[in-house]
Design brief:
The structure is a homodimer.
Chain A lengths: L6 H15 L4 H16 L7 H16 L6 H23 L4 H12 L9 H12 L3 E4 L1 H8 L5 E4 L5 H12 L3 E5 L10 H6 L7 E4 L14 H9 L3 E4 H8 L7 E5 L3 H6 L7 E4 L12
Chain lengths: 289, 289
């Protein structure tokens, strides 16, 4: 999907919130506003939001003086999620349908706030999200497809969430190639982060070859594009990957929380609802993008 | 009050909404986004929002190719409000306290949406707003002051609203100087608009000497500043005037609807509530600006 007219103001909010998250002084926050202005003055509205977000987060890195501003937060998210790993594995093992449980948990991983204070709070949040209804849930189609293929390309999203991805991968029962960003951007999972989450123990980690917080084919490596084309089945996590893959003709199983009005309208689904399925099976709003 | 970190995203929204209001094609809307980017890249965060808004609306005029993009809308708002004039005058005349009724109606004038389809709908909206509670209403203090002075400086705000201002002026019983913007900006009242509303029949129309949608003393004429300094009593209509006069030491009676979170927080009052009174009498949030 292309940029929507609601996206520019969200870019401004993201720049300021990132600065606030990093406890930047007011002068730097206004510097981020100005930097965001320069980004907007050159915005490519034919690009997808994650494609434009690369310039935005490059600017943020420059203004806050950190190449990977989310480095520490990413490490902490992964550690927080890993602390829950034994309990969540138990939950999957004891469930009537471990694959279904692992899928729902993988969606939870995209939602929970790793900034909460304790394991107890995080586990409570996971349980709450786990019990939430999915607006869209294509489990049967997914399970059927899974039996027909011999490997899966699994496109990762954020840190912390990747621990939940690992648990799903452990239930898939076939080889998985886990795609990570080619370099640090926001809290997205890189190779180092995926190894932190233990993904290397259950899948082959591959890079998209670019830093975009989504799959921007123009910027991906030839190696990744070949992998994508040859993959018999694809799982895509998170909204950033969805925003860049929503117009793809091939079948992709998306798992994510609908976090903004633009995507909610595009999918004709409620804001904040959970989505698991292929876009082809939902009515798309042609004016949504 | 100075710019708040919530203001930049509102600037982006205002630029796009103005373009949409003027039925601009998508290409122009994205041009407005880019233009707004340039404005944000040079934003003066020590300025008040209305002071920065001048550059924003200059950019909008340039991009949409109209020196006064709201010209037609302003004319229509004034005509719509004038159509209600006889009924509202009757309402004031038949009320137990005509001054109180005229004050409440003047506040209504700042709120109603002149884009509604008929006089009937507009009158219905006026009645609804009229019956709404004010969060702050300093009627007694206002009436007392009114008896002590021999003229009033009344700072106008928007078109349409100015017809309601005229009805309040007709109840004040003393000479009024009605301040208008020095040139067209947004839907703010200019001399031509004030004459359209019949203000010239009840008050002396004076210009602030600048186009800002508020009172920016650095840019006002010496004549207006002298008038402001000598005024024994001031009524200020609308949020734009409030945003630029909120830090003034002198007594000003503000009448407006609190239309954004930033001002609501500054005044420690609910969003969308009606305000009539002096700032000195409300607890101000020192971190609100």
């Amino acid at each position: 999907m292309k940029m929507h007219l609601d996206c520019p103001e969200c870019f401004v909010r993201q720049a300021i919130r990132t600065g606030q998250l990093l406890r930047c002084p007011n002068s730097v926050l206004w510097d981020l506003v100005k930097g965001c202005g320069t980004i907007l003055s050159q915005i490519e509205h034919e690009f997808s939001p994650p494609q434009n977000a690369v310039a935005l987060y490059d600017m943020i890195s420059l203004k806050v003086g950190k190449e990977d501003p989310f480095y520490q937060l990413k490490k902490e998210s992964t550690q927080q999620a890993l602390a829950l790993y034994p309990r969540l594995k138990e939950k999957i093992k004891n469930s009537a349908d471990p694959l279904d449980t692992a899928l729902r948990l993988a969606a939870c991983g995209n939602v929970v706030d790793y900034g909460v204070s304790s394991d107890f709070d995080l586990m409570k949040e996971v349980e709450e999200v786990f019990n939430a209804d999915f607006f869209h849930y294509e489990y049967e189609e997914f399970a059927e497809k899974l039996h027909q293929v011999d490997w899966i390309l699994y496109i990762g999203d954020n840190c912390g969430e990747s621990v939940f991805d690992r648990m799903l991968i452990e239930e898939l029962g076939i080889p998985v190639k886990y795609a990570v960003r080619g370099g640090p951007i926001i809290n997205d999972v890189t190779k180092e982060d995926a190894v932190d989450a233990g993904i290397d123990q259950v899948a082959e980690i591959v890079s998209t070859g670019c830093r975009a917080p989504g799959i921007v084919f123009d910027w991906c490596s030839d190696e990744f594009k070949a992998l994508y084309d040859s993959a018999p089945m694809i799982i895509s996590k998170g909204q950033g990957n969805f925003e860049t893959l929503s117009d793809e003709k091939r079948e992709i199983f998306f798992i994510f929380k609908i976090k903004c009005k633009v995507v909610a309208s595009f999918l004709d689904s409620p804001l904040n609802s959970m989505f698991f399925g292929r876009t082809k099976t939902v009515a798309l709003d042609p004016n949504g993008s």
